[in-house]
Amino acid sequence: MKKKLFLLVFTMLLCKANAQGEQIQIETQNTALILKAGKNGVLYQSYLGTKLRDNSGYNVVSKESTKSFVVNDGNPLVNLRHQAYPTFGTENLFEPAIRMTHNDGNPSLELNYVNHSTQKLDANTTETIIKLKDPVYPVEVTLHYKAFYNENTIEQWTEIVHHEKKPVMLYNYASSMLHFDADHYWLTQFHGDWAKEARMQESELTSGTKIIDSKLGVRTDMYQTPVFFLSLNAKANENSGELVAGTIAWSGNFKFTFELDNKNSLRISSGINPFASEYNLEPGRVFTTPSFIYTFSNKGKGQASRNLHSWAKKYGVKDGEKSRLTLLNNWETTFFNFDEKKLTDMFADSKTLGVDMFLLDDGWFGNKYPRSGDKSGLGDWQATKTKLPNGIGFLMQEAEKTGIKFGIWIEPEMVNPKSELYEKHPDWVLKLPNRPESYYRTQLVLDLCNPQVQDFVFKTVDDIMQTKQGVAFFKWDCNRMMTNAYSAYLKNQQSHLFIEYTRGLYKVLDRIKMKYPNLPMMLCAGGGGRTDYGLLQYFTEFWASDNTDPFNRVFIQWGYSQFFPAFSICNHVTSWGNQSIKFKTDVAMMGKLGFDINVKELKEKELKYCQEAVANYKRLSPVIWHGDLYRMISPYDESRAVLMYVNESKSKAVLFSYTLHPLYDPQYNAVRFQGLDPNKTYKVEEINLMPEAKKSVEESGESFTGDYLMNVGLRVSSSKVESSVVLEITEL
Ligand code: DGJ
């Protein structure tokens, strides 16, 4: 009761204080976003950056940005350059956040400030809601800002509603628009393809518009991870420089637009990609955009990543604060070629390795059209009798007997034309009328706009969970993008397809999460084709790439580590690449460790090494998963990578050093550690050594102060091509 009263008084105080100058302060521990309504009623962004010690500074910046008119070329111009949510059709000359056509055909919109409120949701989170309204047409737009104090992260989204007689047509509906004024802007994007995910590319923005987007419909992030860094004035590095790190919590088509204008002002609009997606909005229906999530750092990219990792742990990823399951997967070892005996033998192998779970991959289902390859069976989620005569219930029981958990692969949004599902429901797939069906991996996308299809997808999971004791884990795959897409269910509203598909998918996942709240699931899309904080609300982790060659993997994991926490990035030790088992395992241990190898083919020493590495990983995973990440040497700068994780109390740390392909006999100097407590003394121990192998780090076993390790450092990198060093650092 007391707490409620306090919250109410606090909220009222905030509104009163803000109402005086209509200055809206959205703050985290170190960042401030300041908005203010001008005399003309327009809402402006007047500041985004490091929080000032003295609030009066915000009044000064506001004066400039909220002027009703500016002079351009000697002529007065309505000032809309820093409009918080720019409209289209009247005076705005730049990229709009929103564009619509009204019932009467009028293609313009103006939005004026109405009111705002700020509420403290809990000790760490504050939500600010700002209402805007068109002075002529009955259209209302509500801007939402959730500020996470400790994580220095802001989540921003928008609601659009109107009360006209008939639907209005929405052409643009951004989640957010942010404004910056700097001398130079450096953009880092994360580009890729199958087996080449999350490659970092940094370039200076030039005048005009740069777009990063996806039009793939599903498996949306195959060519582009929906994240970016935008550094101000100069390129940011790991520990210095000002930048914004942004990402969109949307699993369908997304779009980031960077518009650098005539005055060198930059505006960034983020949201659903409106491409081929004009939306007919019914009167009274609220169109809610997905959240744009961002953090501002004045201490470089490392701090930005740590902010997002902490945010993800608490708010962004399902069960982010819980532990994860280590596993043995059978995909790379068996592909579609397995039977009961092979699988139950692998259960025993999982036990031998010491991992928590066996994960059965693709190929276990289909009877009329067995899934013996990727050309048939998808959609028929019953175990193939010829392969698995006792069904998956038997496998669940056998795994339990062996003392391991059992997980299973599904791809429930897809169908092979050669399947019973397709024979029964040819109208459940996305396909164009009057044109031939278009296959990719011999499959089609199911129409998740259709509630019957949503029920089917939910039932796929539910049936498996209702078999015997159910599974402990799902790997949810999605191996194609949309092409030739048309939904029979949507009839004459085909431009809603990309949006309604994604919403349909979320509806199914909401039901699954509701019924099975503790079920861990891995998000996968033919490698890392789905890596976004929209789906990570439902998934505990994601498959980063089918490319498991540890050399390539260092780069892929490095890329994802900028935006996603280690516990969410799944890495498996496989037979890709001919490097040592140690190098492969050490690389996979940088995130969530799994194996996908034939354990029986391991030499005795290799097996012993793996067993020890799994045991080490289990001991250290709380630090790797939930500690702070410090990236010290980037593989983009040198032919090696060095990083470390430090736990919250700075009592334990793990350092990974990967030597890639350096020039002959590299002379590596000491690497300075980061994130430790200078006043503590730490023992440094090299772990994950092959049996009888010599240590690479001379000082292994010795103790040093944090001060020494951070200011002098140690030579941590081996000079051998494709080799690795893992150090366990423990407070004495
Ligand atoms: C693509 C995934 O990325 C792989 O890990 C594997 O599950 C295959 N699909 C199975 O078809």
TrEMBL record:
Domain Glycosyl hydrolase family 36 C-terminal: 641-722
Glycosyl hydrolase family 36 N-terminal domain mapped to chain residues: 43-282
Enzyme class name: hydrolase
Its EC number(s): 3.2.1.22
Catalytic activity: Hydrolysis of terminal, non-reducing alpha-D-galactose residues in alpha-D-galactosides, including galactose oligosaccharides, galactomannans and galactolipids
Sequence similarity: Belongs to the glycosyl hydrolase.
Protein name in the entry: Alpha-galactosidase
Organism of origin: Flavobacterium sp. CFS9
